Amino acid sequence: MEEGFLKEQQIMENDLNSDTSHKSSVDFLMNWFRKRSIFVLAYGTGCGAIEMPPTFTSRYDAERLGIRGAATPRQADVIIVSGYCSYKTLRRIIRTYEQMANPKYVLALGSCTVNGGMYWDSYNTIKKLEDYMPVDMYVNGCMPRPESILEGFIELQKEIAEGKASSWQKYEENYEFYRKNQEAVLGKTVAPAYDADWYLYDGGL
Amino acid sequence: MIVFDLLGMFLSAYMVGFLYYGLYRNITARFQRRIGPTVLQSFYDSIKFFSKEESISHGWMFYLGPVIMATGAVMTLFFIPFFYKSESFSGLSQYGNLFVVLYLMMLGPLGNAMGVGVTGNPFAAMGITRGLTRLFAMELPFYIAVIALMSINHSADIATIAANQPTMNAIEYPLLFIAAMFSFVAMMGQSPFDVVGAPVEVYSGPAAEFSGKFLALLMSQSSIMSFAKLVLMVNLFIGGAEGFLELLGKTFVLFLFVIAFGAMYGRFKTPQSVDFLVKVPTAIAVVGLVLATLGGQ
Amino acid sequence: MRILTLIFPLLTALAVLMISTSQSVWQMDLAVFGFENITVGLKATALSNFFAVLVAFSLFAVSLVSGKQTLSKSFYFLLYLLTWSLLLIVYSSDYLLFFVGWEVMSISTYLLLSYTLSREALVKYVVFAMASAMSLLAAIMILYTGAHSFMYVDAHQAYLALSDTLAVIFVVLMFFAFFVKIGVIGFHYWLVDAYTESHDFFTPYLSAVVSKMAVYALIILLLTVIDISTFSNSWISYTLAIFGLLSSLIATFKAVNENSMKRVLAYSSIAQLGYIVTVLSFADGVSGALYHSLIHTLVKLLLFINVAGIIYVTSKSKFSELGGLIYRMPQSFVMLLIGIIVLAGMPPLGGFASKYLIYNTLLENGNLLILAAMMFASAAAFLYIYKLIYGIYLGQPTSKKLESVKEVPFFFLIPQYIISVILVVLGTVPGILTPYLNTILTELKLQALPFTSVAVLNTETGSYNGLVVISAFALIFIVILFVLLSLKSKVREAKDRFDIAYCGEVPNEATHLHYGFSMGKELKRVGFIGTILKNSSRVFYDFISKQLFAFATVFRKIYSGNLSVNFNIAALFVLALLWWSLK
Lengths: 205, 297, 583
Known about the structure:
The complex is a heterotrimer. Helices cover about 40% and strands about 10% of the residues of chain A. In chain A, the strands form 2 sheets. A 3-stranded parallel sheet of chain A has the order 3-4-5. Chain A has helices spanning about 5-15, 25-35, 50-55, 85-100, 110-115, 145-160, 165-175, 175-185, 200, and strands at about 40, 65-70, 80, 105-110, 135-140. Chain A has a single domain (about 20-200), classed as Rossmann fold. Chain A contains 9 helices and 5 strands, in the order ααβαββαβαβαααα. Helix content of chain C is about 65%, strand content about 5%. Chain C has helices at about 1-20, 45-65, 75-90, 95-115, 120-145, 155-160, 165-180, 190-195, 205-225, 235-255, 260-280, 285-315, 330-345, 350-365, 370-390, 410-430, 435-445, 465-485, 525-535, 535-555, 565-580, and strands spanning about 25-30, 40-45, 455-460, 465, 490-495. In chain C, strand 3 (about 455-460) and strand 4 form a beta hairpin. Classes of the chains: A mainly alpha, B mainly alpha, C mainly alpha. Chains in contact: A-B, A-C, B-C. Chains B and C meet through strand 1, helix 3, helix 4, helix 5 and helix 9 of B and helix 13, helix 14, helix 15, strand 4 and helix 18 of C. Strand 1 of chain B pairs parallel with strand 5 of chain C.
């Protein structure tokens, strides 16, 4: 797989060209309600999670936009991958993402999800989240401030309203592709193992 | 016709309940010096959940859990008269009385416990245990206060108790009212007695496995049940109501008090809340009971 | 074997039917045998028929269940002997035949229990049963001195003729005898072990009917002999109310802490019977007591037969070894669900009617704090009720073997279906029992309950319409279920039992997922519940037995083993007797 900015540009252009928006009025109404009420899974996966508490509480108040936290993946619409993903965390993220109910959206914070960011040469993290999970919205930065996160949410709401945020469908349609990539780094059982078999599978320490 | 009556009660409870929950988030936000969502936010939430593409289920019993809980909530609503003087909006209250209502209030959580238990999630079972433990503790002061009222009025009929109030039972028997308010805060699921559905502490307790339309049904029944409990308290303690505006006003004042109480306090642990509820409010209720029955008879 | 075991129950049912419709009376004067002034008799009163029907039905239910198993013939013989003795107890119209029936009941229960009970539990049962029988005999003898007759019709005159101290002693002895058999807290030391360790097919019978005999006897004592409808608020009412209240509260909390299925149900029996004892402190509580006896008999039969089925299929009797059986045994689950809804006293089904009568009696008589405590105990009962159904059917299976069990054999399910139908009918038309209760109440010279229609249960303080409640429940349930099923969103089934929201982790076979057996253990941290759970009557009875042992050790030394000393003691005793008789 290619790495770096070229691939990223290609993906963005592909997304802009594909027109997966629905045009019927029922769907319009449904999307309107979906954008007005967003439940974010309370799961801080990386160091970007430090910016989430101010965003959702009194200082920057994301609740104005209808966004609130949810405890379990069953109730959540959005999972925020906030920063780097080590292999250990990636197992849990994928398991949690698969337990969420459709329609679900992924918001990727920070540059680590785009191309590895600060940990571009680490043995233990993944470099490109898009290979393992479909992403709806990237919010760049290291790490993005709450204002950026809010702007990311507003953009996500716009995409939901237009029906373009369809990463869950992409996941179901390209499941083999994602699964192959997941197994390449996590082993045959994507489920977490409790002994450290993660470094046995990806090439070792 | 009784069907229109019941439909009217159901729709008004649904609308007003959701509105109150939107107001709840708004008012709590103002307590916390921020703005909060719009007042219609609860409607948006529930419609979004109803329109989820998929919901996850764990078998046929999982369907019955939220359905029984909603049935319990709606039945509780139907057995409480809105306006004690008139025939309209009195639902099925002539066929039952306060004992029936008190037990119907507990039917929903028990049915939901079945649906929650079948998922096999230990966090959900933990939440249910906390809920049942809190249930018997919080009902004790309420039972004592309600029994005192029943004994004073020589009747277990809600309309009779509401009609016999000279001014308001809250002013006539303040100790009973205070004890019942402690229980009422717990019944509405507010701090300091809200450990049951604590979102992150116990993985949101009983609601851990509900998604999509099941969660929407749970949210709907929660708002209907809250409105039913508010109307019950208004009938028992705050003089009943004779018109829809008066009912809305009184329930809103009560609701505001409960929200303010909840916004101020932190959360008790389960043994702490049981310990507190069987000591202080129960003592107040017993003293109120003795004074009320001695004074009246 | 199956058909043969049903013959005697059917014959019993037929006999009960014939006796109850024929109003027969039989009397015999024992002067023929040389005993002056003693008449014995059998009489089929409305109260007797009520309990006799319960006995016949329980025998039928238990025989249906046990008919397929290879139980020994002596077991069945003892069971029939026990039934005969219970019928003798309810049909006798004098205390002598009553005592004969009581003794045969104790002995045959002992023999039936001896099949499976451990030695310690058996000794506990025997000591308490014999103590109860002896105190009953002493009380009957005291009553005899009042009017020189054993018959119930003369018993009130006899009671009034007793001196004050003798009357108090009489009542105390009677209460002791009946409280032991009912299982009131303080006298329940034998009950929990006996119910837990007895044979799985005998426990339903034991819990359903044998305890009700003491309830019947208590009603006869309170209303025929002492006649508390003429004077209330005496120490008798307070004793009954306090003991009943303590039973309900303490047994409820003790039930939450248990790990074995049958122990939970044993404590639940004590708690439910506490309701009956409390409401009997008032004369007009008889209606509530009788209704609750009926409901409790039915529901304990249902629950114990269900549990017997579980033990039969899985050979496990603890919550920590069960779990997740709902989709493998769906019919048993639904039966247990109906059972626990009735046990909790929830409105759509019949359990609410009996609780409603009890609460109204307490409310009318102004016993408000005890009413509040009773409602509190009823709310606290939800904990062990939920633990019962969660520990067995919900949650996750705790061993591989549980994932391959099949439904119980059909003969376990037949009595459960019959009882469920009866309970649903009682919930729909709770007033169906009122005419019969009124017959009993008029016979006992009490005020009858108001009766408007079969669907409404009327009391002085209010009424409720069972038909409206259950039809509203059914309609609303169907409407909401229909709405839920017709919504657009697809339903994705969870992949397997491990697909739960478990904080991103994936549990496997080795993870502890069944929370059933430790539910309720955290209640120890609450003040008063911790005190209840820490103490038990074992301490008290150990203390008594130690004192008795010490006393006996000292007293034994009188007989020193030396023949001349023993002879001197015997001679002194004879001289003392002669001196006392010549005085």
